[in-house]
Every structure is written in structure tokens, then in C-alpha cells.
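Table S4 entry, S-adenosyl-L-methionine-dependent methyltransferase.
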Amino acid sequence: MADQENALPQDPTWPELKLPDLLHTDVVREVHATIENEWDPLQRSACQTAAGRALWKHLIHDPLADLLAGEAYLTSLYEKIKKDRINNAREVSGVILAVRTLWFDSQLEAVLNSFSGRGAQVVILGAGMDARAYRLSCLKESDVFEVDFPKVLQVKTTLLQAAMESTNEHQHLTQSAKSLTRVAVDIRDNDWLDKLQISGFVPEKNTIWLLEGILYYLSHSQAMQVLKIIAEKCVLTHTVLLADFMNKPTTLSSSILHFYSDWPDHLLPSLGFSHVKLSQIGDPDADFGLMHDPLNLFNKLRSLPRSVQHHPDDGTPCCRLYLVQASGSPNQTIP
């Protein structure tokens, strides 16, 4: 039991970290050891995302997240959250990821509802440890395609198989999506769309593309090529893009983050999308009750024009994350 000095502020939504028994089985331990020893930082970011969803479970329903994250990432993020809460930090670690996940979930559900039950294809590029195909009931009429590196999808499949075979907390693992297809390909390669189509993707069918936490890891040319390929589908069918963009200034590791756009709401129409809506964390559709403090970092940024690159109070870079929905269809014209 923690001593009084290190006790967390009382809040029933933040219980002590309890690791599921499945994480301690030999198979799962070996899988996560492989991740630590063989995956590069981009691939390991999938586990970090899963850890965020697992530890913000009072807001995000993702019962597989702890298994997909692994003990090391769960423990690391939990200690950061614990420190932030003890220090009454304005932004608790993982809050960006929580808001981002909730935004993508809510936007995906709203778009699917707008299709009036006709269903759609949902393509998740850089799917990593995403478990939406298991946790979102709105996908019940949708064909989901998860696209990522072969080694990532192989490990993910092994972990999910362990969950299905477990007699404990994950024994009722069921798929929410109408169908789920994993497509093992690097989207930095030129043939990723061909492999997607070979796997059953139909270019003429209504499609929602999810690019969560992926674009900024690509080079400028790679990211632009991916966006152009998606935008080209607007002339074939109703196409919706859900993506997050970083602006140029960033305090994150520049060694693995490359692509940025200060004005994605200008960029996407130039590629072929006819409607674009941009939000920043803290906006009404990207708040979720987590951004109520007017002095937190994100609300302070929202009060500044987007053209401002450095905060006038302290000169720090204005590191923005834009949440963007873009769409187009054959019967729409670009304004």
C-alpha cells in the first residue's frame, strides 16, 4: 500500500493499476518481449496508444487495450499519470490520446449513421493495436480493413488468439464488425492499394478512411501520396477521411516525426475533397469533458490565431494537433 506521501488524490475513476492475468502467461510475455527487442519506435507507438486507451478506461471502452499494450507500456504510462495527478497537472498524461480516440470514435459513428444502415467499408491505415472492430457496435454493417506492417499484424493476431483461448477475463471476445480483414503491407510502399484491393476492398463502395496517429510518421512525399490516393476515390464513391495532423512546431521527437501541415483545411480541398471540417483539442466536438480548465495548454492555443507559431507569453512553440474530417463524392464539386 502506498504511503500517505505518495497517495493519489481521491478519484474513483482512477483506480490502482491492475494487470490482467493474461499478461503474465508465457505466450503473451514472449510476444511483448519480441515487441521490445525487435520493433522500431514507430511500431512500438501502437502499444503506447493501446496503453493510453487502457488507462483512460473510465472514458474509453476497450477491454483488449491492456493485453495489446503490454505490461511495460501500461506501467510506464500509469506512473506518469500518477505523478501528474499528485502534482495537480493541468494536462494529465494521455489526455491527448483519450480525446483523439473519443473524437475518432464519435466521428466514425456519426458518419456510419449518416449512411442510413447501408454500411460501408472502413479502412484503418496504420491500424497497429486498434481494436475498434471488436469494441464498436456501430461497425456491425461495415467491412473493416486493418492495414499495417506484417510483423505488427502477426503479433496482434497472436495476442488476440491468446485472448480467445483464455478462460479468464477475455473469454467472451467477439467481433463487432460485419467482417474484418487484415492487410499486411507498408503504406510507404507503392503497392499498398493493390494489396488492399486483392484483400477484398471495393473502390466503388462507400468508404471511411481512418488515419489516426499515422500521417506525421511519414515523409512529406509519402503522406501526400497516401492522401492523394484516398482523395482520388471521391470521384468513384462517397469517401470520408478522418485524420489528425500536426503543425510544424513540435516538442516531440523530430527523429521519427516528419510530415506536418499548418493548414490541412486548405491542403485537402486542393487534393479533391469537397468538404473539410477542422477541430482542435478543446473545441466543442473535441472536448469530452476533459478540457474544462481554461488555462490548460490546449485552450491557451485555441485562443491564438493559427498563424502564431510561438506563444507570446513564454515563446514556446505552439504545438497543435488538428482533428480533421474531409469528404467528397461523385455528385459534389469542390468550392
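The domain at 95-328 is CATH 3.40.50.150 (Rossmann fold).
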